[in-house]
Design a protein that fits this description.
The structure holds two protein chains of two kinds. By secondary structure, chain A is mostly beta strands. In chain A, 0% of the residues lie in helices and 52% in strands. Chain A has strands at 4-7, 10-14, 19-25, 32-37, 44-49, 55-58, 61-65, 71-76, 85-92, 103-105, 109-114. In chain A, the strands form two sheets. In chain A, strands 2, 4, 5, 9, 10 and 11 form a six-stranded mixed sheet that branches. Chain A has a five-stranded antiparallel sheet with strand order 1-3-8-7-6, with no helix packed on it. In chain A, a hairpin with a 5-residue loop joins strand 7 and strand 8. Chain B has strands at residues 3-7, 10-13, 19-26, 33-38, 44-52, 55-58, 65-70, 73-78, 87-93, 98-99, 103-107. In chain B, strands 2, 4, 5, 6, 9, 10 and 11 form a seven-stranded mixed sheet that branches. In chain B, strands 1-3-8-7 form a four-stranded antiparallel sheet, with no helix packed on it. Chain B starts with a strand and ends with a strand. The chains are: A mainly beta, B mainly beta.
Chain lengths: 115, 108
């Protein structure tokens, strides 16, 4: 089945540093979603990307939909302690899928920010 | 906007006991609803989804079942829990997906 590979698996950074993480797949996706999960809570949607090449920002977060439609990137600028959490990429199941509820998730990138 | 409510937040159950987790939705009618499970704080796996009352689709074979008795209610159940059923269970709805705060289930 489809798999989303996220890297790195974990990151330990200093407050103020920029962060970059990515998500790749052997299958084409029509949508890329980025979520953040804090301990004991459900994932929260950060950014949704719907078009190849699309670059979208949400505050200090910027995500891009890769031109090949097989990858996506999430960048966080000037990290702060509250950025700590697990970041997941996700996309609709099935090659070229369009259901935004039936999602395939990556394994997540664990971000730790040292003050 | 849609709000997903789940309870309880945490649950410890012995092996072989029954399970019932409830999810209710506010802010929309006839929502598509989903149950996901997350093991060991990593990737989420879709278990069930429902497009309406009484309509359930299962994504993976397992010891669990789901029901949709009302438009805004989605229930996850088991007749006899296994140790492997431990995990973080998340109800979700809306498009793109929004999640509730989950139930941490520990089977002992």
């Amino acid at each position: 089945g489809q798999q989303l590979n996220q890297s790195p698996q974990s990151m330990f950074i200093q407050e103020g540093e920029d962060v970059s993480m990515n998500c790749t797949s052997s299958s084409i996706f029509n949508t890329w979603l980025w979520y953040k999960q804090e301990p004991g809570e459900g994932p929260v949607l950060l950014i949704a990307l719907y078009k190849a090449g699309e670059l979208t920002s949400n505050g200090r977060l910027t995500a891009q939909f890769g031109i090949t439609r097989k990858d996506s990137f999430l960048n966080i600028s000037a990290s702060i302690p509250s950025d700590v959490g697990i970041y997941f990429c996700a996309g609709p199941q099935g090659a070229g899928g369009t259901s935004y509820g039936k999602l395939t998730f990556g394994q997540g990138t664990i971000l730790t920010v040292h003050p | 906007s849609q709000t997903i409510h789940q309870w309880p937040a945490t649950l410890v159950q012995p092996v072989g006991s029954p399970l019932s987790l409830e999810c209710t939705v506010e802010g929309t009618s006839n929502p598509n609803l989903y149950w996901y499970r997350q093991a060991a704080g990593r990737g989420l796996q879709l278990l069930f989804y429902s497009v309406g009352i009484g309509q359930i689709s299962s994504e993976v074979p397992q010891n669990l079942s789901a029901s949709r008795p009302q438009d805004r209610q989605f229930i996850l159940s088991s007749k006899k829990l296994l140790l492997s059923d431990s995990g973080f269970y998340l109800c979700a709805g809306h498009s793109p997906l929004h999640f509730g705060n989950g139930t941490r289930l520990t089977v002992t």
